[in-house]
Amino acid sequence: GWCPVSPTGAQTTQLLVKPAWRPAVLWDRVTLTCQGLGTTGATTWYKDEQRWWPMGPDIFRVTKSGTYTCDKPGSGLSPAMRVLNDWLVLQVPARMLLEGDTMTLRCRV
Which SUPFAM superfamilies match (predicted)? Predict the structure, then answer.
């Protein structure tokens, strides 16, 4: 898989979402996975910028809307992932896009 590298050369923590669309929508049965250098089981989860699940699992199914981040000791805090419960959502692929790439948008109701 693809692992981004910070300017200092250390791997950073990534938050992966399935299905792979952003923003994620709760009614898609969203799963979040925290990847980084830290040990398995040493993941700290944050919901809406509040510490929510210290020493949580690396992967879990989301049951509440909000903004999620995770922290792995040694690789830091992940970028944020929004999970919505709205009735109308415009989504983009949850992957790195480069200028000139073709992108498919999804309008979900």
Answer: Immunoglobulin
Mean pLDDT by 10 residues, the chain (109 residues): 44 89 93 83 91 90 96 90 93 85 88
pTM score, whole prediction: 0.81
- Burial call 53-65: b when 16+ CB within 10 Å, e when fewer: eeeeebebebeeb
CATH superfamily of 14-97+104-108: Immunoglobulins (2.60.40.10)
